[in-house]
Amino acid sequence: MFVFRRTHSPAFDSRIPGQGSLIWNVSFGMIYVSIGMIYSIFPCRCMMVESDLRWLGLSDSKVAETIKNKSLTEQLVSIVKLAKQQLASVGQKLDVFPKGSLLYNVGSKTKAQCAHHLPTVVQLIVEDKIKTDIQATAAVSYILAHAMKDLNRTELEKECGVGIIVTPAEIEETVKCIIGTYKEKLIIERYQFPVGKILGDARAKLKWADGKYLATEVEIQLRNLLGVKTEDDLKPKSKVKGDQKQGEKKKADEVVEETEGPSTMEELIKSRARLHKVGENYTSDGYVVTPNTERLLKEHVVRTGGQVRTRFPPEPNGLLHIGHAKAININFAYAKAYNGVCNLRFDDTNPEKEEKKFFDGIEQMVRWLGYTPAKITYSSDNFDQLYKWAIELIEKGLAFVCHQTVEEMRGQDQKASPWRDRPVHESLRIFQDMKNGKLEEGDATLRLKLTLEEGKMDPVAYRIKYCHHERSHDNWCIYPTYDYTHCLCDSIEDITHSLCTKEFQSRRSSYYWLCNALDVYCPVQWEYGRLNVNYTVVSKRKILKLITSKIVRDWDDPRLFTLAALRRRGIPSEALNSFVARLGLTGSQMVIDPHLLDASVREYLNVHSPRTMAVLDPISVVITNYSSLGMASSISIPDFPSVPSSTVHDISFGSTIYIEREDYQSGTPSKEFRRLAMGQSVGLKHIGLVLEMEKEIVSDDGSVISIEVKAYKVTGENKPAAFIHWVANPIPVQVRLYERLFHHKNPEDTEEVPGGFLSDCNENSLTILHRVFVDKYMSTIKVWDRFQFERIGFFSVDPDTTREKIVFNRTLLLKEDSTKK
Amino acid sequence: MAPQNKPNKNPKKEDKKEAKGVTPSPPAAPAGISPNQELQQLYTTQFNAEVDVARLTRLLTAMETGEITEELLEVCPELVEVQQKNQKLKFRKTILERSVKTQEDENAKKGIKTAADGPSKGAPDAKKSKEESKGGKEEQKGGKGEKKEGDNNKNNKTPSAPPKAKKHDYVVVKDFAGSIMGRLAHVFKKAIKEAFPTVSVPLVLAEATNPKFGDYQCNSAMGISAALKAQGTAKRPAEVAADIVAKLPVCPLISKTEIPPAGFINVFLNEEFIAKQCGEISRHGVRLPTIESRRVIVDFSSPNIAKEMHVGHLRSTIIGDAISRLFEAIGFDVLRLNHIGDWGTQFGMLIAHLFDRFPNFQKETPAIGDLQSFYKESKKRFDEDAEFKKRAYECVVKLQSSQPEFIKAWNDICDVSRKSNNEVYDKLDIKLNERGESYYHNRMEAIVEELKTRSFLREEEGRHLMFPTGCDIPLTVVKSDGGFTYDTSDLAALKNRLFEENGDWLIYVVDAGQSLHFETIFSAGRDLGWYDEAVKRVEHVGFGLVLGEDKKKFKTRSGETVRLKDLLDEGVRRSEEKLKEKCRDRDMSEAELTAARDAVAYGGIKYADLSHTRTQDYIFSYDRMLDDKGNTAVYLLYAYARIRSIVRQSGVSQEEMDKYAASNELLPLGHPKEVKLAKQVLKLSDVILQVVDTLMLHTLCDYLYNLSTTFTEFYSECYVVEKLEGTSKVNMNRLLLAHVTANTMETALNILGIKPVPKM
Q1: Which of A422, A429, A435 minimises the CB distance to B131?
Q2: I want to staple B301 with a disulfide (CB 3.0 to 4.6 A). Which of A63, A228, A417, B317 is the partner?
Q3: Global pTM value
């Protein structure tokens, strides 16, 4: 099998164009075929496989587990074969190989693209030159780095420390020396001191030391120094840390962020992402190496100057949503972390659904998140090239024109296309006819001849659409698909890391297949987990439905989770970015509740949005003794009361002020009620006054119109139970209060919501307050300004704001509403 | 949005109606409200209604003026759909227009005529892109297709076709016979030349589409008027038309002409002339036009030895035979040649295998049996066994040096093939002279010599190439190993046919995929000065593929090529089934039934092929070809048998008919349907002239079909035998007309190679 993969054999006629790449493609399939044969046709072979695995010293359970992994098993079987051959050549035959774990280690770590170097490594193990796992691992990385080169055995031996023997005495001495340097700290921190640090230092000095032995030595020496662990030492570490955190939190917010791990994607990437270096694409998992790979990679490095190049490739057929925030962050931050560049590429291959406003909206959102694309590119810029390549694929017999309908191509057990083997010239002719408008929409597609991971056959590369294109105008009536366009545009743009969500893992093989079929530079695709949010829908179609059903106003209705909606709601991009960064870089799909985002945002706004007082449901309060108080008509209050050096804003004060209707209770107040009522005084924030109830003025229909009070300076004696917010010289503004749009976690799930997502909408998700009072100083605020309305929540100025009317959106309540979970 | 609005507004409208009705107070108003309030309510209702009226008026206006407002789209969701469709179609139109333009530009660059330039045969051709015709070659290696595999790679580069030969008039008519069109064209050309000697505009003559406009129309006046204008003389088309008519020589064919203001010339035929022509036919039989005789060589069928004939050979065989029959019918000297593939390296392999399998073959004829599997066996050995391969090559050398033992082996192999091919030819009643490639073996050497001495060859990488004028792809005359190619043999054949056979017309009936190859060969022939294309007609008559009913290459269920023999047998089987289904076996003797069965089966297969535009692919369907309705052989054969039976059952003897004919110089024509049928009968000559020019046999098929439908029209209105109160009266003129019709049909069917049977 491995020999086959590497084929430089003259059996394959290199004069036939395209044949080379075909073979590479096939080799993957070969693995499955041969495994299939082992299990189905020759059950006795299965026994042989098991005995081979046992020969490595694996336990029965491990054998059973390993067999499930077909490719690993195949690799191990071939390694065992190699090892046995080599043993036989020196006249040895063993029932169980004593260092089977080394071979297993090598087998599980070696990537397919360098498996042809395995014999050398196995030989080193058999000859007992590689003795430890560390050496074996070093050998594996060495052969990977030399996947496309010839192997220099001497260098390999040097690289994995063959012949270097680290004696126990050396280890003891080194550890002693290191512990000595940390001695003081160790005595104070005792077992809280990270052992890893000691081990790390030791490893740096003694590269080839046996790991287990080293660890034991460190343990022994620490016990010698510190004695046995006490009860204190056994207490969980985190508690101590937590205490520290609380203490530090008050000092500065940055500290908090630091202890919680990387707060920006860039930091996260620097610390977590382990992706290949530019030009070393072949070292990544599953990368397919062809005879041209080395040359193509070299050329690629020359073109890019070795610079990391990523791209964010949205389709301009809708607006970006929160899931994209992750994609944007990962792509741009990866580039930033490695001094690279990131392009914004509009994948504009489906003109039916594309609109100018989406192009603009997407770019705006990328910039809003704080990123600047190195270049803005369009898939449509490459239509000519893509078409030429399509012709090339047909000519190579790797693509064909098919007349199956969409329905026939869909579904689980789709039939193979009866047109799969039609002659090349026929496909060429019909493809040209497609391009020339001779066929009806849907009458023909161009399909690629390959089977995808999940058995899906022959993905479509081109389809007919009689549709005007925003950029290519009426030049084309055939448009390429995602599958076809994406990887090739990546290749054209010399993308080094093609980062995408996990769903596309199944397209990876087609991605590599296509690039290799055309003998063009093949970028590496890396996948990360998609970010989904509960209690919302993000699909373009569904949002459109919400809009046309007049449930939401537009794509940026703050109840939605499009980026435009989040911005309009007042979510700061910084908070969004750090939220995404904190979710990490795992490969699994992530579904988060909106309140998690809220918490992140709250934390940010708490520090960044100035306080102000606003009364949502005002009731007027007349201070009857106002003139006797001698108060100034204007006072300065800090924007951030907890920050000593905070900036300030001036607000008015006067004889009539407005307070929240709910801060007053008519009649005898209930026991829990701590604010203004007959016989119960309340304090006014920031001004040091206490109000004492005199009487209420009631209208004809019995509602309270206003309250008359007397005011006194706050003293030690009359200190009220609560201080409330107020506005004295108000301007009326509009405030929009938003609540969750959907009742259920998964409104799209028909089991959870049998009536469909439209039936799941919260009819009261938007409340508009038309008479909210804020101080007159706010008449000069600008759209997007954010405030914390004291005691209420975070608000942001809506773009609907005009000179006559200010509109606020409620971003968040101050605290999570415990009633909604 | 529309549904939301509608329910709100409609009730309001109702309100209004009721408000205007008999009861003045709206019943909706709850009791006990003040008159003031009530008035207020009425005002509101009225206001709403007015708004609604205004809206509906706007919609109506929009609809009437065709202005598509958003409001309108909201009420008519279908309109949105249609509008989208319309947009798509418009977009497609743009694309198509551009594609046409691009193709035209490209054609212009390469000197290919577009459809508009060459009306006679260009039209169907132009539709086919080059790739398409190439497709014919690879997909169905019909006729010579399979010999040309070596050229495929070269052809893939989409080379430009050599410029098509300029159209020449090869057909010199001596006697138009019944031809109407031919005569009309003749007199009109004369008239135009006399009236406007300075103008050369092609004659536009067509059958009138409406009896109001006469029988034929000459539409040349507009073109001439335009040409005159270009010369500086202004003359309206109507004036031009009048001038032409003035110069029109006296012609017994024309009864009158009319010139509508637009400048057409409507021609009304003289019924007397028609009656006279029919009278002549009734006396002397069907007459075809007389054309200056030529020696014609038709190259068709051309299968390969050792491979059984398959469906790919069907079209060449049928079309080639029909073309030959046509030429023979008009008295040409026709040589039918079967250019079989009987020479080449594959024979080395076959002979070597023969030696191994039948070591005794020199003494007794080997029982090769199935030659196809014999071929496969040897091919397999050839591919897998290097030693055998070497031997096979040695055999080729020995064969080519005419060693008797090898010639014997070769003959044995060819005989097997020949025998099986002849079965097919016999069934289809097709005669062919076999003249395979081997015939040219020595001539090829001579050709190479000629080309070498005349310095027409260029050597490239060991090959000797010839670069004919205007062709992208050279001819490989000698391969690098010294061997010859199809290019060489076709050059040798061309020269042989021109010089040794003295052919005037050389017709190659080979699939359309070979067009490039032949254009190149012909161009080479002209370069070599072998012929003048103004004098000699050397033409590749191409044809499209045979497709299955799934519109894909016609194959058996298991996906193999259909053997021609099987195809014919299946046709016979189905035809018999069909006849029995109709209980025809009861009315016919066994011999008659067999004759009818074969006529239907073979006639059906031939006619299905011939009735489709030659240059296009056609779909092979037994059901369709055996259908007794529509333009099928079965329908025609039935129609023919019926006319014969009408004549038979009239009880009038042949002598009586002859007597009647002899006494009536003009066949009396009274009823309009009689006239119509008579005209249709006479058109055969026009059709023949046309087909001799275009070699598009479907025109003749269409004619036949029209003739039989015209007869049906005639027969349903005109009694041949009138039965009145027990006595029956025969309308002799009609009987004669029927008789003439049957004879005309028989003539046409014979040309198509379809055997008419008097009883079905």
Answers
A1: A429
A2: B317
A3: 0.54
